[in-house]
Amino acid sequence: MLIARTVAELRHHLMAFTKPVFVPTMGNLHEGHLDLLRLAKPLGDVTVASIFVNRLQFLPHEDFASYPRTFDSDCQQLQAQACDVLFAPDETQLYPQPQTFKVHPDPALANILEGEFRPGFFTGVCTVVLKLFHCVFNGGAGVAVFGQKDYQQQLILKHMVQQLAMPIDIVTAATTRAPDGLALSSRNGYLSPPERAEAVQLSVALNTLAQSVRTAKLAGLFDVAAAELTAMEALRARGWTPDYLTLRHQSDLSPVTALSHAPMVVLGAAKLGKTRLIDNVEIQR
Predict the structure, then answer these.
(1) Could you list the residue range(s) of the whole structural domain that residue 78 is in?
(2) How many Cβ atoms are within 10 Å of 72's Cβ, its own excluded?
(3) Which residues neighbour 79 within 8 Å (Cβ) at sequence distance 6 or greater?
(4) Per the domain annotation, does 180 fall within a domain?
(5) What are the two backbone dihedrals, phi and then psi, of residue 17, each rounded to the nearest 5 degrees?
(6) Contact at 8 Å (CB) between 23 and 154?
């Protein structure tokens, strides 16, 4: 596996290939990241992963400084999956001067849910992803793979490449889960053992809400607001601090006010102790 530390080194190596497939990460890799890589491998002629903890997507009170950095272990895991290239720039390489030009996604999609509770987050995400795309694809075509756990993020990035006419296919991989159903996340490492045992209750709450929607679709009656409130209160009763548990349309994450045959998704974000977790469950027609 080639480890490229500079944009020039990365581009020089990738000149020999016609269809890179790219998996961007912030490191501290787990099985979910490796599943993205496994999905990516047959989709192009060279597999590229990146490790970069992006300062722009962290709010001042968040965990940029303490975000786990496990570079040696990450490299071993990527090599075991036959990753071809690791792009591992430092801040001076990716942001050689202050990043005053930024990508501001559509507020209708970016200022709700995660964007409401983490203002500016998606501006930071879109800016770094666009920059990474230019580094890896250099204006050409390719494929990028993201996880479904970050549901709003992958939808925003799909809109970004469409509206900017970038010849890049965004592929969304299913969420990788622990045996008890907890969505894998680098931030799960912040959980104490009792919190880790409790953490699965977020996915339990989302699946319970999703199942009530599926059942109600058959019956034809459903109070969306009341069901969302019940799900939030169930988590609060267990000591969580939920930001949202909500039913949305998959296409644009607009609120569901009345059930239809359109694909829907239940999304949730909640804090357990000091750790904030997110998850979602799709509801197909």
Answers:
(1) 2-173
(2) 8
(3) 1
(4) no
(5) -120, 155
(6) no
* Cα gap 187→191, rounded to integer Å: 8
201 shares a domain with 124: no
Helix (H) or strand (E) holding 20: strand 20-25
The confidence score (pLDDT) of residue 220 equals: 75
The letter for the amino acid at 40 is A
Q: Which two tokens stand for residue 217?
A: 């679709």
- Sequence length of the chain is 285
Same domain, 99 and 234: no
| Residue 270 belongs to some domain of the structure | yes
pTM reported for the whole predicted model? 0.96
**Chain segment 179-192, per-residue pLDDT in tens:** 999 999 999 999 99
User: For the segment 188-240, what is each residue's pLDDT rounded down to a tens digit?
Assistant: 999 999 999 999 999 999 999 999 999 997 777 889 999 999 999 999 999 99
Residue 239 near residue 200 (C-beta atoms within 8 A) = no
Name 117's Cβ contacts closer than 8 Å, sequence gap at least 6.
243, 244, 269
Q: Catalogue the active-site residues.
A: 33
- Point out the domain boundary residue: 173, 197, 212: 173
Beta carbons of 258 and 102 less than 8 angstroms apart = no
Q: How far apart are CA 241 and CA 192, in angstroms?
A: 16
> Is the domain of 145 the same as that of 193?
no
The reply to whether 164 and 245 lie within a common domain is no
Which residues of the chain fall below pLDDT 50? none
Indicate whether 169 and 266 sit together in one domain. Answer: no
Q: For residue 247, which amino acid is it?
A: L
